[in-house]
């Protein structure tokens, strides 16, 4: 009886998913989606497993999520994997998480479908991890497909500080004085030094687990983004949840700060 109920539920889910897909307005899809994959640890507690079990389930779900985004034509996905604050977690939790992230990056690169672009303060990561991220990024640089920005060792405030530092160093190298820079500085100068420089800002930002805050994610870039908050813990996030987010985005009138 239980198996019959699960089968009926699975069939209903598949039918509803296809219905949503058919009704999506593909002309109004976001080009760039940011996602905050929150809830792995709570999911692990609910499942009776260790924290690493939740992070691994979250990594597995992310691979599926990238495939779903690719399928509807999303050109850029930015994923908040590891914040600078997360780096202060106990070694017993952080070390397995770093290993899971390394394996995840390898798996994304191995698909041959997506261009991997690590963003964040890679100098804060273990040297072997930073080197691995850069190698996968270089190996996939010419891949034609969705660009996957992996925010690892990332903090929005640190990104802005790094951008300003880079801008000052660039102009110092040109011999520009502080006074001259102050007279000409505008927002585009800073945007050109962000980790995501050269990319459009995210159209849609998704956060799972019921939390409704940015937690430092893409502080500059998300100024005019649409937001969609989902109660599902990240490992439980389904394709139908993404489709609902895309449906909600498609009917919004974007005001760009107005």
Summarize the entry for a quick read.
The protein is of the alpha/beta class and 258 residues long. The protein is built from 9 helices and 6 strands; from the N terminus they run αβααβαβαβαααββα.
Q: Which overall shape is indicated by the principal axes computed on the Cα atoms? A: globular
Largest sheet: 6 strands, parallel
CATH level-4 homologous superfamily:
Decaprenyl diphosphate synthase-like
Alpha-beta classification:
alpha/beta
Range of helix content: 40-55%
Question: What features would you describe in this structure?
Answer:
The protein has 258 residues and is of the alpha/beta class. The chain has one domain (29-251): Decaprenyl diphosphate synthase-like (Undecaprenyl pyrophosphate synthetase). It is built from nine helices and six strands; from the N terminus they run H-E-H-H-E-H-E-H-E-H-H-H-E-E-H. A six-stranded parallel β-sheet has the order 3-4-2-1-5-6, sandwiched between helices. Helix 5 (127-139) links the parallel strand 3 (115-119) and strand 4 (147-154). Helix 1 (2-23) packs parallel to helix 9 (239-251), helix 2 packs across helix 3 (51-71) and helix 4 packs parallel to helix 5. The chain is globular. 34% of the residues are buried.
Task: List the SSEs and their pairings.
Blueprint: H1 2-23, E1 32-36, H2 40-47, H3 51-71, E2 76-83, H4 91-110, E3 115-119, H5 127-139, E4 147-154, H6 156-174, H7 178-184, H8 187-191, E5 204-207, E6 226-229, H9 239-251
Parallel strand pairs: 1-2, 1-5, 2-4, 3-4, 5-6
Helix pairs in contact: 1-9, 2-3, 3-4, 4-5
């Amino acid at each position: 009886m239980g198996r019959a109920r699960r089968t009926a539920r699975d069939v209903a889910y598949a039918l509803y998913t296809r219905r949503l897909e058919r009704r999506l307005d593909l002309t109004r899809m976001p080009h760039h989606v940011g996602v905050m994959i929150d809830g792995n640890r709570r999911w692990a507690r609910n499942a009776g497993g260790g924290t690493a079990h939740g992070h691994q389930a979250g990594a597995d779900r992310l691979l599926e999520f990238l495939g779903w985004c690719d399928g509807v034509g999303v050109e850029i996905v930015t994923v908040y994997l590891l914040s600078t604050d997360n780096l202060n977690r106990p070694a017993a939790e952080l070390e397995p998480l770093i290993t899971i992230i390394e394996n995840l990056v390898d798996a994304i690169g191995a698909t041959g479908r997506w261009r991997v672009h690590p963003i964040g303060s890679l100098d804060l990561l273990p040297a072997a991890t930073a080197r691995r991220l850069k190698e996968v990024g270089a190996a996939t640089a010419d891949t034609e497909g969705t660009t996957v920005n992996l925010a690892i060792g990332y903090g929005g405030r640190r990104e802005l500080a790094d951008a300003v530092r880079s801008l000052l160093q660039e102009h110092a190298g040109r011999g520009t004085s502080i006074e001259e820079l102050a007279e000409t500085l505008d927002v585009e100068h800073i945007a050109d030094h962000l980790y995501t420089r050269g990319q459009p800002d995210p159209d849609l930002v998704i956060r799972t687990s019921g939390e409704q805050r940015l937690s430092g994610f893409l502080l500059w870039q998300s100024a005019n983004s649409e937001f969609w908050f989902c109660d599902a813990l990240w490992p439980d996030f389904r394709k139908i949840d993404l489709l609902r987010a895309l449906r909600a985005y498609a009917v919004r009138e974007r005001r760009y700060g107005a």
